[in-house]
Amino acid sequence: MGKLAINIENLVITYKELHRISLKTLKKSSTQKKKKGYTALNGITFSVEQGKIVGVIGKNGSGKSTLLRAIAGIFAPDEGTIETYGNSVSLLAIGIGFINNLSGRENIILSGLLMGFSKKEIEKKAEEIIEFSELGDFIDKPVQTYSSGMYSKLAFSITAIMESDIILIDEVLSVGDAGFKKKSYNKVKELISHDKRTVLIVSHNMNTIRKLCDKVLWLHNGEIMMYDSTEKVITQYEQFFS
Amino acid sequence: MIKFCRDFKKYFSYTLYAAWAELKSEITESYLSWIWLILEPFCFMLIYTFIVRIVFHSSEAYLPVFVFIGITIWNFFSKTVNGSVKLIKSNKSIISRIYIPKFVLLNISILINFYKMLVSLVIVACMLIFYGIELSIYALYLLPLIILLLCGTFACSVILMHFGVFVKDLSNVINIVLRLTFYLSGVFYSLSTRVPRPYGAYLTHYNPIAYIIDEMRNILIFAQPLNLKWYISWMVVSIVFSFIGISTIYKHESKYAKVI
Fold this sequence. Notes:
Chain A is of the alpha/beta class. Chain A is built from eight helices and nine strands. Chain B contains 13 helices and no strands.
């Protein structure tokens, strides 16, 4: 067994029903019973070795996105622990921190800084990002003039090229036109084939999972149904829903 | 606190760049662009001068400068505080996708408003020259006074930012409180001469914004030194509340993404 990159023990995450208080809800809560929280993840325990690619599958609302967000540090666990051994973690999400009437180039820097890279590192990679995004002259135009495809191409390129140790991918493999889709798929493949990089991919596309992943984690209603080699899990998974 | 310093340093370049980017975006959005930064406080100064002179038939020495200093400080404070209530919610797209220490968002907003205040202060300088007011050595107190303003505003905002996430009606309440504070801070009149004794002095000293506005006028227009006793007291209060605010935010920030 190799070095661990992610170790999660007994993770519980609940969304509390208290949401936001207003005068209206204050009045209500005195008469109504308080609603119970919704448990998105209930006692998840698993670990991922460094350099492994793990697919996360399950139907909608089974807690896949919540799991990724918890690993990325956006949510704190209500119970249990998440250990990432000091690796840098990034959630491959589209267009974080973009300001719409600034140019693509400026948004690259903004997004990169937000992800915790230094300005020097970003400037070094900027040309690569621009080239990969295929935007050409549009890069110096405000992003609000972009078509939605161009927008997501740029966003994908930023997250794909600014590399970190652990990458969490949440259904972004289908970006742009057919050509770019293939290219981004290959890029993801190249990214994750690096033997020190650990990757978690959420996808509903079994082909993608089958092609890319070493292991698969199947979540069902916030609990782990199976965590095993790709073929075993997918076979079971497809039987479960047929 | 160590965590605060580390995060402050780590996100410093992002803070700078994001503030710059947002300012640039604001400026490119409107036709008169950066002229608004000057035009807006200038128009308000004209309005208040008009009301005080014509409607209330009263006047302070150098009324336009007097009013402009008040507006400059008030705008910085009220815009930052008002924005802080909804800060987390308006940055939802960032917060739900990546971890960022939440006070960084506040620092960005403070920096933007601070820049606008600097533009305003340049106009104050021009007006001082126009009215032939000579600056004394006490004008150097401007720097510590601005530091107090920054600390105080941060303390207020960081606490409101936290409660703004959970309390939906807070922005309505804050609007009313801010309006009340505006009238009690002597933005366009002098608290010490217009409000009967001893209440004028109470209002000036126990309301930090009134205190800062008053001192700013004293050092710039009337060539008087700072009242150190009150300065130090308010500085201590600001720092204590900043501490409380920062530790509250660190404790609860992971819940924010779930609530909004």
